[in-house]
Here is the input.
Amino acid sequence: MAGQEMRIAGEGGEFGAYVAMPAGPAKAGLLVIQEIFGVNANMRAVCDAWAARGYAALCPDLFWRIEPGVQLTDQSPEEWQRAFDLYKAFDVDQGVRDLATSIAFARASLGLRKVGAIGFCLGGLLAYLTACRTDVDGAVSYYGVGIQDRLSEAAGLTKPILLHVAGKDQFVPGPAQLAIAEGLKLHPLAKVEFYLEQDHAFARSGGAHFDAEAARLADARTEAFFAEQLG
Here is the structure.
């Protein structure tokens, strides 16, 4: 089934979401959390790929209060600048509340019993916070930015989280990576996987730092994680 746009009633108004449904009954729901480029072709492709694996994948527009319908790429300096401007204007806490609303929508309107979350970059941070603050059934963070400053939030974890960390991430430098590893190493619900030779966004197909082998490894670990947590 081709993906479609849906509307979700949130705090202060409605926001859009791209939804990709599997051909047969869904194994579970999966919240795909955007990068700073909005719900663009890359995020829709991620949803489509997870739908092909049997999940109902939902990518909500988290920039809707700033500018609805953002679809940027990482291919020009102008788009990067616009993406960073949106990132600076974005309210992370409100974003997590919108994600909680999206989880409730997936359960009530799409009929999904279990819902996981997977996020990239900004979405990686939001996936972590969603695991800490909401009733999501499991979360995966790809190269989340800023997690080291919110490690105390891990006290709120009630369901497992898997974090993929790029060893040469220009946005998550070595001291931040060490803080994440040390801060979460004893938490029974958190697992951190390192990709020592990779830079930020190594799993973004078509991106400057895309590495097919590392992306396949991270995706395989993610798929095994969701099979266990959402099965």
